[in-house]
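Recall that a protein's primary structure is simply its ordered list of amino acids. Everything else, from secondary elements to tertiary packing, is in principle encoded there. The following example makes that idea concrete.
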Amino acid sequence: MAGLMKLGCLVFVFVIAAGPITAKTALSCGEVNSNLKPCTGYLTNGGITSPGPQCCNGVRKLNGMVLTTLDRRQACRCIKNAARNVGPGLNADRAAGIPRRCGIKIPYSTQIRFTTKCNTVR
């Protein structure tokens, strides 16, 4: 169950480069996980056809929280760890599409994968 909770983090991987840069402490993985937990069913269950309003609201909230480069890098690390914990049950294509499906505009179009180097995220 903890792995599934963390899975929702993968969704946010496409949002981490979008926030403005301001002074603030880094996010915790707990914050990332709790905002994206509602996305886990959509990302692991082929029968669910929509990310749902709770998932979209969590992604929006997290998008507003990643205000610094440090936040975005930390969110990237949390998301990658969560995706690894879930393993092959993760639908990466669905994760990549959540911002679009939720109507969240982000200026980041390249998909980030397990090989992404989070320390290069700006």
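The chain has six helices and no strands. The chain has a mean pLDDT of 77.
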